[in-house]
Structures are given as structure tokens and as C-alpha cells.
Amino acid sequence: MFQDLHIVDFHAHFPIKGDVSTSGVGVRQYAAGTPAAEQAVYMRAQAERYRAAWRLAWDFPEPDPEAAEQPLETLADRWLAELDRYGIDRIGFATGGGNDTLARAVARHPDRFIGFAHHNPFAPGAADELRRAVTELKLRGLKILAPALERRIDERSLYPLWEAVEALGVPILIHFGMLGAGGGISWNERDNPGALEQVARDFPTIQFVVPHFGIQYVKELLFLCWACENVSVDTSGSNQWVRWMPYSLTLDDLIRKFYETVGPERILFGSDSSWFPRGFSIRYLQDQIRACRFMNLPDEALRQIFGGNAIRLFRLGGT
Ligand SMILES: [Zn+2]
Known about the structure:
This protein is α/β, with parallel strands linked by helices and 319 residues long. The chain is 40% helix and 12% strand.
């Protein structure tokens, strides 16, 4: 499949009950200053309208609310079947019901699943929890949602965590830009990837990955990548946020711009897949491969973008 590319999805979510993902609702529970109950109801309705329109545009099925309630083993096996169905080598789950739960899911199919630790970086003991997650639970990265944090990503209090990341040699996936569906967070003082620059300079061996091409901060992310060679981007999700940019911008534009500047060794394919019955979002992969092929990118660039870079960052050796 896929012209013999070995596909690794760097960024998906394991859709188990109670997971904090990009669904929007969980995000607001996670954010500081939870809105009042009526406000939350209103925003949930707005988000639901937004998601319904998005599913219509992509012809996605409606999420099955009971799917996330299935036993972890059932969900893990269902995901494995998705990977086999579409010829995907490996998948990285950025979240999945907390570190212990996700580790159990990954342990069920360790040759195909990769898990990220995901816990509040400002919580006491966050660095120790990361060490436990990587050394004991065998997770291979750290996922952070910057706009949902209590404070900015460049606070000195986070440096012990960065030191742990540096020693462990795992990549960090840090979401910046708008978060959630319609009614989600569009802006706050923590959501700009530019805030990562000092951290990335102070820890030049840590590999930072900013998902979704930086969303509305495309420019800031490009310049961050210019300043710091240890910052990469992922292509994950529908990238429908381009519709809200004040100028014409397409998936093809994004891939071309990042390819020409940042280079193929710092672009990672991701699908941001999560819920069933949709499962693996094959359309996003097809669209991205089509865009790269139409640009006549060399085969080696495709090998890097769609799998090789993820293997390198996760230190998994050749597949
Ligand atoms: Zn995601």
C-alpha cells in the first residue's frame, strides 16, 4: 500500500472514556477557570453544531458514544484492525485516559502502538511522573496542550521537567493555537508557539513537535523553526482551520512552505484520529500523499515525512 511507504501516524488519540483529547469538552474541564454550568451547556451545543458541519464536509459517520465505553482490550484490538486494514505500520497515541491506562493499551500491541505521557506539567512531581511513564510504563513521548495550561510554557518552574525529557531522550508534542471545536479556546496568552523559543534554545537536544502546522500561528512556527533546529511540525488532522485564516491557504500551501523552509526531515505525518466508528482517518493520509506527489517531492522526502522521522524521534530503529 501507499507505494511501499512505511506509514507511521505520529499523532492520534486512544478514544477511551474520560480521555482528554481535542474533543473540546474535555479540554474545557482541563483548562483553568472552568466556565459556569449554563455557559458550558451553551458552548457544548455550539461545538456540537460545528462538529456536525465538519462531519458532513468529510462524510464522516457520527461518533458512537458507546464505543469509548468498550473495554480497553476491545478498543486496542479495534485499533490494531484499523492499522491492518489501511496498511499503517505504527500509530502514536498522544492521549488515552491517563498514563497508566494508555500504557496498558500500548502493551497489548507494543510493536504497533506508541504512547505519549500526558499529565499536567505544572503538577508537583511532573518530572518524576514522566520518568515513571517512560522507564516503567514504556511510553515514548510527552504530550502537552499549551493553551490549556495554567501558566506559560517558558516558566522556569518547568525546567526540571525539560531536564527529565532531555535525559530520557523522548520527543515532546506541544499543541499551540486554537483548541477544541467551535466554542473552544481561540486565544490566550499561553497559545503562541513563539513562547517555546527560549526553552528550545536552552534544551537543544530535545525534539519538540508542534502539531497542525501551528494552526493560526503558521508564521510564528515557521520563524521558530528557523531559530531552533530542534523544532519540527506535524501535519495532523483535517487542517480545516485554514478556512478561518484571513487569506487563502490550503493543505498544499502548508506542505510546500514547510518543505521549502523547514525541510522534509522536520515534517511528520499525523492523522489526529480518535473516535469510532471513523477509526483511522484515511482521507487525511490520502490527501497529504496526493499533495506531496503532485509537488513531485522526492521519494526520500515522502519516506521521512510519512514514517522515517517518527521512527527517528521515537528511537525505534528501522522498520
Ligand atoms: Zn490531537
